[in-house]
Amino acid sequence: MLLSIYRYNPETDSEPYMQDEEVSLIAEKDLMVLDVLNLIKEKDQSLSYRRSCREGVCGSDGVNMNGTNGLACITPISEVVTNGKLVVRPLPGLPVIRDLVVDMSIFYKQYQRIKPYLQNSSPTGGHERLQSPEDRAKLDGLYECILCACCSTSCPSFWWNPEKFVGPSGLLQAYRFLADSRDEAMGTRLAELDDPFSVFRCRGIMNCVSVCPKGLNPTKAIGHIRDMLLSRAT
Amino acid sequence: MADWIVQRFSALILAAYTTVIVVWLAVYGTELTFAQWQGFIGQTWMKIFTLLTILALASHAWIGLWTVATDYLKKRLVRVVFLGFVAVSLVVYVVWGIIILWRFD
């Protein structure tokens, strides 16, 4: 298999280049993309990428593989290689720090902006804030987000307006708190999203849904936020 | 929010108007005379519908092009010039459309 990796070291390279490596795979053994990157790194220590849990939980190793974003650690080689070739690039739309490592500041800034924590000023009554099983079920498909940024960096609206459009990941999280029966800040949360960019830049192309390694549906969550904004305005 | 609603409502109006025109043309299609055309467009309900459609088209185009411009035209000056051109064009089209409709009897 031919592996082509995006390389860029701002200290030594004037511009990024693609490094081609021939990797011999054992037929009956289907490695993950991360395993192959590790094999390359054994030979070439200068290759940089983020990884941690290697089982799709931490969300560190989001990369672009043959044009599709995903987590390198849970993407089998057999799933992404086409015509014996695999091209690995950093997540699109974010500044590259080095090789496959991107600067995620703007992504985290959008996450911070939606205030990703419960806001509730009523007294607790000496015990936890309880939820009915039905209310708890509303958070399924929302709370599982691991902030790997695969969705937001596959979204053209996020590429063009990362400062103003919250992005699929941030909006999924925004709805996670809007939908929470224990949160009391729905009004201010919605007010902060009600402008032409934050939510309404979503064109519903659903790249986010097709790349999410956790199988979540940000487009659906954005639809719910739109409904809430609509009923708030009318 | 308002943009989003206007975009959808204007789309409905445009779709309805297109349907009416296409159906009417399909019925009278091949041997259409100017008198028939004038008689159809000159009816009061059709004039109101046409006026509504012109306004819907202008607002739909404005919202759409404003969105495209804020996505793709990153240089402020280029964007302002482009949107200025769009705004002037749309106002001209609306005024022109109204004048044409008013002369129609």
Give the helices and strands, then pairings.
The complex is a heterodimer of chains A (234) and B (105).
Chain A: E1 2-7, E2 17-22, H1 33-43, E3 62-65, E4 68-71, H2 77-80, E5 85-89, E6 96-98, E7 101-102, H3 105-113, H4 133-137, H5 156-160, H6 167-178, H7 186-193, H8 207-211, H9 218-233
Parallel strand pairs in A: 1-5
Antiparallel strand pairs in A: 1-2, 3-4, 3-5, 6-7
Helix pairs in contact in A: 3-6, 6-9
Chain B: H1 2-28, H2 34-41, H3 44-72, H4 76-103
Helix pairs in contact in B: 1-3, 3-4
Structure commentary:
The complex is a heterodimer of chains A (234) and B (105). Chain A has helices at residues 33-43, 77-80, 105-113, 133-137, 156-160, 167-178, 186-193, 207-211, 218-233, and strands at residues 2-7, 17-22, 62-65, 68-71, 85-89, 96-98, 101-102. The mean pLDDT of chain A is 94. In chain A, the strands form two sheets. In chain A, strands 2-1-5-3-4 form a five-stranded mixed beta sheet, covered by helices on one side. In chain A, strands 6-7 form a two-stranded antiparallel sheet. Chain A has 234 residues and is α+β, with helices and mostly antiparallel strands. In chain A, strand 3 (62-65) and strand 4 form a beta hairpin. Chain A is built from nine helices and seven strands; from the N terminus they run E-E-H-E-E-H-E-E-E-H-H-H-H-H-H-H. Chain B has 105 residues and is mainly α. In chain B, 88% of the residues lie in helices and 0% in strands. Chain B has four helices and no strands. In chain B, helix 1 crosses helix 3 and helix 3 (44-72) packs antiparallel against helix 4. The longest helix of chain B is centred in the middle third of the chain and has 29 residues, at 44-72. Chain B starts with a helix and ends with a helix. Chain A binds chain B through residues 156-157, 160-161, 194, 196-197, 200-201, 226, 229-230, 233, and chain B through 1-5, 67, 70-72.
